[in-house]
Specification:
The protein is α/β, with parallel strands linked by helices and 236 residues long. Helix content is 41%, strand content 21%. The chain has helices spanning 17-29, 40-50, 66-74, 90-98, 111-126, 159-170, 178-185, 192-209; strands spanning 9-13, 33-37, 54-58, 81-85, 103-106, 133-136, 139-142, 147-150, 153-154, 175-177, 219-222, 226-229. The strands form 3 sheets. It has a 5-stranded parallel sheet, sandwiched between helices. A 4-stranded antiparallel sheet has the order 6-7-8-9, covered by helices on one side. It is globular, with a radius of gyration of 19 Å. The two termini are 18 Å apart. It is found in: Cytoplasm. This is Transcriptional regulatory protein KdpE. It comes from Paenibacillus phyllosphaerae.
Length: 236
């Protein structure tokens, strides 16, 4: 665990005592500090007082929807929020991500997966200070020059391809929904035709950046939801 993650304060907002206990014991074993809240209102108050480094938020709360908590916290805080949900419908996941969640984990969940998602979210925050150059092993994106290098060679991208790559890479390891991509790259309202364009442009990027475009490891699809730029393991 990196130094910036060690001792990170995590707020767990969940009305199930057994879940809170499980999360507290497991996350404390990973050297995280844990705060708890059993209701949405309590969670909002705790978030404002405790200033957590990350929030784990259950969508099924007794006093208000977890989505309402998400929206209210996002009015004044950019703290990473990982949603826990028993709802596995794509529409629910998309709604949470569009509402400001950084990631989601579907119940029942494995603690190993949740801890991994927490580490990624905290790592992303640690990197969130805007850098002019993004480096992912042999892939280098120079934001100031709007240039992309792969294995020392310039990658020729169209303006739209570059804008898509920049948005995905700047939010590495986060799920970006199709709607978010369309709005930020194409702007305004979008149609089914533009949704098709998105798939085409993602395909073009994979052909230019992936070792095997048919089995992408860098730009992966979150079925029915969107895409995730995966930070590659450091080269040894």
């Amino acid at each position: 665990m990196t130094s910036e993650q060690k001792g990170a304060r995590i707020l767990v907002i969940d009305d199930e005592p057994q879940i809170r206990k499980l999360l507290k014991v497991t996350l404390q074993a990973h050297q995280y500090e844990i705060e708890e809240a059993a209701t949405g209102e309590e969670g909002i108050v705790q978030c404002s007082i405790a200033h957590p480094d990350l929030v784990v938020l259950d969508l099924g709360l007794p006093d208000m929807s977890g989505m309402d908590v998400l929206v209210r916290v996002r009015e004044w805080s950019s703290v990473p929020i990982i949603v826990l949900t028993a709802k596995d419908r794509e529409a629910d996941k998309i709604k949470a991500l569009d509402g400001g969640a950084d990631d989601y984990v579907t119940k029942p969940f494995g603690m190993g997966e949740l801890v991994a998602r927490i580490r990624v979210a905290l790592r992303h925050v640690a990197k969130s200070v805007q850098e002019p150059i993004l480096k992912f092993n042999e892939l280098i994106i120079d934001l100031a020059q709007r240039s992309v290098m792969r294995s020392g060679e310039r990658v020729k991208l169209t303006p739209t391809e570059y804008d898509l790559l920049k948005l995905l890479a700047a939010n590495a390891d986060k799920v970006i929904t199709q709607r978010q991509l369309l709005q930020q790259v194409w702007g305004g309202h979008h149609s089914e035709t533009e949704s098709h364009y998105l798939r085409v442009y993602i395909s073009h990027l994979r052909k230019k950046l992936e070792e095997d475009p048919t089995m992408p490891k860098l730009i992966v699809t979150e079925p029915g939801i969107g895409y995730r730029f995966v930070t590659p393991d450091p080269e040894i």
